Amino acid sequence: MREGDRLAAPAVGALTRGRVGAGSLAVVALAVGLLVLLGVPFVGSGYVVRFLTELFMLIVLAQAWNLIGGLSGYISFGHVVFFGLGAYATGLLMVRLGLPFAVALAGAALLAVTFAVLIGLPILRLRGHYFAIATFGVAEGMRQIVTTASGLTGGGMGLNVPPLRPPPFLAAALGGNVAASSGLYYYLMLALLVVTMLVTWLVMHRRLGFGLRAIRADEDAAAVLGVDCTRYKTIAFALSALFPALAGGIYAIWFSYIDPVTVFGLNFSVTMVIMTLLGGIGTLWGPVVGGVLLSVVGEVLWGKFLELHSAFLGAVLVLVVIFLPRGVVATAREGRKALTPAAIRRNLRRYSV
Amino acid sequence: MSTVPALEVRHLARRFGGLAAVDDVSFAVQPGEILGLIGPNGAGKTTLVNLITGLDRPNAGDVLLFGQSVRRLPPHARGRLGLARTFQVVKPLLGMTVRENVMVGALFGAAGHTRDMAEAGRQADTALATVGLDGKAQAPVEELTLADRKALELARALATGPRLLLLDEVMAGLNPVETDAKIALLRRLNEGGLTLLVIEHVMKVVMSLSHRVLVLHHGQQIAQGPPAEVARDEGVIRAYLGQRYSEALAAEVEDATG
Among A159, A176, A335, B117, whose CB has the most other CB atoms within 10 angstroms? Predict the structure, then answer.
């Protein structure tokens, strides 16, 4: 299954080909990787823990974007709206109603999914540029609303969110290597990342994923084959809203302070797109690879050229679109031949207007 | 005993601005029948198929599938009733393999579609073997030739498990040997109980395959009947066939059908 391959975790791609040896190897590799990540707060510095927490969050956002942008082909440029909604709903439910974090987070997730369905029904009828513009408009509009409704949200002054008290056993276990609260947010974000990856993998290998890929290719053909395009697009949009909302909720207690410019910032929307494109749109590991590359390189450049950081992001987007339109994952699979001048010319021809 | 037609089209009309692409067309396809639909370019054949499948909406008239009006049903709901089609301008699902393309049909098609991926894969393999694409199951669809893409359209439609199949020019671009093989395949499918509406430009194909033929011209149906009769119809000859071709064809049809 070549396509299955492209989408699958290496483990399952190998299993479906019947190469159980390679498959179990990949499962072992994944398990080891996860164990290493679980161990980081015990040995890593506060800086490393913080860096990884943010990386997990960005990968979650990119992967969620990938569900609607990569699998279904609906390019959203305002996906930050769900992150912002999650952050504000969690914060407000905790501050104004005094709800515990878990309940507030669940409420925020429900709100974001409901909002996605309501907004998705009209705007998912739009295609291409029009959908992108509509999503951008929704995000900017929501930022304005949250800024204006200062009586409820605190407006442009932002909102202070009570931090979460880490469970005593965590503090004991970490033994002071890093602050227990850092460990808590790290593990929350890691758990969210694992869940996001699992759900994405499931979607890609189930009926839903096939329907979405058919929609991406040709909605008329998909409809005639029996795919309820409106329903499937709405489900994908709702799922792609859920994970950013959860990430936003965790972000709110992690930073203890949120403001509209940050949590509804265009930067997040653009970063999701760049990470996914860089790694490989429509693939399971694309957002992971793209997220790691962009964060590591970005972190290095951030330290050296603070002012030019955004220019760097833009340059990456341009270079990726020209040289790696299908991302690092697919390109690496094709090896050196994907980077020959002929292949690059072919990319330019195929993906230009 | 009267049977419910697999497809019934009643006074269907579709206008694009001042142009009547389909103009008061009525006909029925009985279960087990092969109805041929012919007409010159621009006669309204594909518009008619789009109206039947629900990709386009009529200005007037009604479409009934297995006795049920589907006027208000979206395309996917019509598919679930057992209607499938191929596209004249092929629509391979890019970014997927040949097998995955066909699996979409098995996963979403008519009643009895499966949710089980392994079962969908098996159904896809069966459909691919039926059209002779089994050797290319793992290929990305981007690599298929036009003839193979036409075959893929058919395999994908078959995988939905249809009761009524609309074939929009599946023969176009095939050489004579491939055409004969495809005709034989369609006959086999029909003998297996599948009702067919065959739209073709290639007159010979329709005439030798169909039980009845419907002729469209400028959106209007100008003749309907058994192939030999239609080939001799004055209106059809004037509009479409030409005198000499008609005589040759009538002789050929009589040879073929005895």
Answer: A159
- Distance, in Å, from the CA atom of B80 to the CA atom of A170, rounded to the nearest integer, reads 54
Closest-approach residue (CA) in chain A for B157: A225
Q: Nearest-CA residue of chain A relative to B162?
A: A225
List the single residue in A4, A207, A225 with the smallest CB-CB distance to B105.
A225
Between CA A302 and CA A51, with CA A280 as vertex, the angle to 5 degrees is 30
Structure tokens at A13: 């791609």
Q: Report how far residue A299's alpha carbon sits from residue B90's, in angstroms, rounded to the nearest whole number.
A: 47
CA distance A156 to B221: 68
- Give the three-state DSSP class for B107: helix
Note the Cα A154 to chain centre separation in Å.
Answer: 27
Structure token digits, residue A258: 């949120």
What confidence category does residue B96 fall into, taking pLDDT thresholds of 50, 70 and 90? very high
Identity of the amino acid at B57: R
Cβ-contact A224, A214 below 8 angstroms: no
Strands (E), chain A: 159-160, 257-258
Rounded to whole angstroms, how far apart are CA atoms A321 and A276? 11
For tokens 């429900």, the residue is: A110
Structure token pair of residue A137: 């408009």
Q: Do A70 and A283 touch, CB atoms closer than 8 A?
A: yes
What values do phi and psi take at B13, rounded to 5?
-140, 140
For residue A99, the distance in angstroms to the closest alpha carbon of chain B comes to 40
Q: What is the pLDDT of residue B133?
A: 95
The neighbouring-strand residues paired with B38 are B215
Give the DSSP per-residue string, B86-101. --SS----TTSBHHHH
This complex has an ipTM of 0.89
Q: Where are the domains of chain B?
A: 92-146+155-160
Determine the Cα–Cα distance for residues A138 and B73; give it in Å rounded to an integer.
31
Contact, B169 vs B146, CB < 8 A?
Answer: no
Predicted TM-score (pTM) of the model is 0.87
Q: CB A207 to CB B108 under 8 A? A: yes
User: A147-178 burial by CB neighbour count: b if 16+ within 10 A, else e?
Assistant: beeeeebbeeebbebebbebeeeebeebeebb
Residue B245 pLDDT > 80: no
